[in-house]
Design goal:
- The protein is an alpha+beta fold.
- The chain folds into two domains: about 120 residues, Aminotransferase class 4, branched-chain amino acid transferase, N-terminal domain (D-amino Acid Aminotransferase, Chain A, domain 1, 2-Layer Sandwich); about 160 residues, D-amino Acid Aminotransferase, Chain A, domain 2 (Alpha-Beta Barrel).
- Helices cover about 25% and strands about 25% of the residues.
- Helix 2 packs across helix 3.
- The protein is globular and about 50 Å long.
- The site of 4'-deoxy-4'-aminopyridoxal-5'-phosphate (PMP) has 13 residues, from helix 6.
- 4'-deoxy-4'-aminopyridoxal-5'-phosphate binds next to helix 6.
Length: about 300
């Protein structure tokens, strides 16, 4: 058998061999996209060993996503936090990408799920490197604006991290790769900048930092929030406002951020160089402060790190 990403997985209350956590082909979530999930990272820090980054904030968002869809998760937030830590320990991981997912299982063909129907929950944890590549963290990615718009308000809620939303992300990232870009950026239906396929976006000019608002069809990222807190701390003005497409062409710096992508500079948009075509100084400052949380150079005064083994 091919090597599995980790030996064990948490599934419906038990820790079991990775390959045993299976579902039936009639799983509702496969047919109708009815899942909500999270992506969380744990880092190996010098002082506290392995720590989960913003554990409670992520799992709280899992419950928020479920609430929007009237989905019942048959565990408390504390229980899910504990299970998240347990599966990291069970695999003896030093660093990890963690994927909790709540979904409707084999419930038959009905689209509507009876209210209060219990969901299945699994939590996987495995080693995973830089999502857009190590090189991109230094030198930036070439991004292209997608011909696909993000979801219109009041169609599917982008504030929920739901499985079905990722069909939009797939179209955006497939198109970007097909055109030779490292990542795609989508506009909202009004033509304003929304976000990357799996990342939020910051646009900087004349030291003013802008990021797209919640009303621009984004998933309000936890890394986005982290970057906003850090930029304020570094003394920058941050504006959450609609960003017209051309502001990306005229920016001094752009970066993307997300749990998988961490903080990644964008060096060109649609083939137009951002600033002088590399990582900008403010992006570097944010990266240093962000990665500093995990290499010990940024003290965790926010209580964002939860030690796994201590
Ligand atoms: N937008 C989308 C569409 C995403 O999938 C993600 C990754 N979860 C983000 C933004 C960034 O969110 P976070 O920083 O919470 O990972």
């Amino acid at each position: 058998m091919a090597k599995t990403p980790a030996e064990k997985i948490w599934f419906n209350g038990d820790i079991m061999p990775w390959q045993d956590a299976t579902v039936h082909v009639m799983t509702h979530a496969i047919h109708y996209g009815s899942s909500v999930f999270e992506g969380i990272r744990a880092y190996n820090t010098p002082d506290q060993g392995t720590c989960v980054f913003r554990l409670n904030d992520h799992n709280r968002r899992l419950f928020d996503s479920a609430k929007i869809y009237r989905m019942t998760i048959p565990y408390t937030l504390d229980q899910v936090n504990t299970a998240t830590m347990d599966i990291i320990r069970a695999n003896d991981l030093k660093s990890a990408y963690i994927r909790p997912i709540a979904f409707y299982g084999d419930l038959g063909m009905g689209i509507q799920v009876p209210f209060g129907q219990e969901t299945e929950l699994s939590i996987a944890a495995f080693e995973w490197g830089a999502y857009l590549g190590e090189e991109a963290l230094q030198n930036g990615v070439d991004a292209g604006i997608s011909s696909w718009s993000r979801l219109a308000a009041n169609t599917l809620p982008t504030g929920a991290k739901a499985g079905g939303n990722y069909l939009s992300s797939q179209l955006i990232s497939m198109e970007a790769r097909r055109h030779g870009y490292g990542e795609g950026i989508a506009l909202d239906v009004n033509g304003y900048v929304s976000e990357g396929a799996g990342e939020n976006i910051f646009v900087i000019r004349d030291k003013v930092v802008m990021t797209t608002p919640k009303t621009a069809a984004i998933l309000p990222g936890i890394t986005r929030d982290t970057c906003m807190v850090m930029l304020k701390e570094l003394g920058y003005e941050i504006r959450e406002e609609n960003i017209p497409r051309e502001s990306m062409y005229l920016a001094d710096e752009i970066f993307m951020c997300g749990t998988a992508a961490e903080v990644t500079p964008v060096r060109s948009v649609d083939g137009i160089a951002v600033g002088n075509g590399g990582r900008g100084p403010i992006t570097k400052e944010v990266q240093d402060m962000f990665f500093g949380l995990f290499n010990g150079s940024t003290p965790d005064k926010w209580g964002w790190l939860t030690p796994v083994y201590k």
